[in-house]
Design brief:
single chain; alpha+beta; five-stranded mixed beta sheet; three-stranded antiparallel beta sheet
């Protein structure tokens, strides 16, 4: 067992699910509830669930399915393909800006953080100029050091999105928030709090996870010359496979997935009691040597498609097609434009951040 630290909720012990098969099963098992509003539910992100409009990520069906279904068409393969020219133009513009920066420069600040933020902001209908605001509010919300400060940032973000939703209802445009406001809020199918919860989840998940995955994908290539040569050979033919394997390897969600047992149940030879807290470890599942031999090594020849970073079951990541496209185009274009790119840090371990539920980097100093 492990202990979930105190913060927005009291510290409590929890079962830790680590084996690949059990992690897959736990993610799909309806007896393990994601609903943070239940009495005694474990809380990992330090925002008190009793004081916020919830996200469907922290709900169970049927409410989860009802709200999730409202944006299902926003992330279809067809709609994501239509975004390709927009994403490519954003990448090109950001790399044009990078080329004029003094060296060394922080690639996280000027590229890997900005790209997903701008993409998801445009998808939602958030003005580009407001995207740095959401980067900062998200960073504070998912930090683990100060629950009161996390909640304040969360509240400020929610208030902004509520105002924006009302504005979209009266002056809609071709974006996700406008469609939610006109088709569902104005018709009474959802409340303003529910729309805000959807928008906030898409905004946070759409930039925070992709930002750090892009940076870590780049970091691996900057610290392993043989891997870099293999991935970039033949005009990047192996980039799609590398993206999946790097997601397995880095497993950035860490210990963010928590559940509560709704009844007595057995898993992995252990009996969990009703009300027990459960932490589902994506990193442990993705590094199970019985499924991924030598899991601490990036191996482009392994079957990485079964990794668990996107989740499994009803909470499988809807934004996976969009994130894949961003990561693929970012790697292809960056290393084509800057073939001599290299890390400008004596100690690669110095770039990582701590004290947050998603693994990533604080900065990524590079030169060329």
């Amino acid at each position: 067992m492990v202990r979930i630290p105190a913060g927005a909720a009291q510290s409590r012990r929890a079962w830790l699910v680590t084996k690949y098969a059990e992690v897959r099963r736990a993610l799909m098992d309806p007896r393990l509830s994601a609903d943070e509003s239940l009495p005694g539910a474990p809380v990992r992100i330090q925002v008190d669930p009793s004081q916020k409009p919830g996200s469907f990520l922290r709900m169970d069906d049927p409410e989860h399915a009802r709200l999730r279904g409202l944006i299902a068409t926003e992330f279809t393969a067809r709609r994501v393909r239509r975004l390709r020219p927009t994403i490519q133009k954003l990448i090109d513009d950001l790399l044009d800006d990078l080329a004029g920066k003094p060296r060394p420069t922080d690639l996280q600040d000027v590229f890997s953080r900005k790209l997903p933020t701008l993409v998801i902001a445009r998808l939602l209908g958030v003005p580009d100029e407001d995207s740095p605001y959401f980067v900062e509010k998200t960073r504070v919300t998912i930090s683990q050091g100060d629950p009161e400060r996390s909640y304040a940032a969360y509240t400020e973000m929610s208030e902004y999105l509520g105002v924006l939703a009302e504005r979209k209802r009266h002056a809609p445009r071709d974006d996700m928030m406008s469609r939610l406001a006109v088709d569902h809020l104005a018709t009474g199918h959802i409340t303003l709090d529910e729309l805000v919860g959807i928008a906030r989840l898409v905004l946070v998940a759409g930039h925070e996870t992709t930002t750090n995955q892009i940076a870590l994908n780049i970091l691996s290539l900057l610290t392993d010359d043989a891997l870099r040569a293999e991935v970039l050979a033949d005009d990047g033919a192996l980039i799609p496979q590398y993206v999946e394997e790097a997601m397995r390897y880095w497993s950035i969600s860490q210990d963010a997935i928590v559940r509560q047992a709704l009844e007595d149940m057995e898993m992995g030879g252990v009996v969990m009691k009703k009300g027990d807290a459960v932490v589902i470890s994506i990193p442990a599942g993705n590094h199970d040597p019985s499924v991924f031999p030598h899991p601490d090594r990036i191996d482009l020849n392994r079957d990485s498609g079964k990794h668990l970073q996107w989740g499994n079951g009803p909470h499988y990541c809807q934004g996976a097609p969009l994130a894949r496209l961003e990561m693929d185009l970012a790697l292809r274009t960056l290393f084509r434009r800057f073939p001599t790119l290299r890390l400008a840090a004596d100690d690669p371990d110095s770039v990582f951040r701590t004290g947050t539920v998603f693994h990533g980097v604080r900065h990524l100093p590079v030169t060329w």
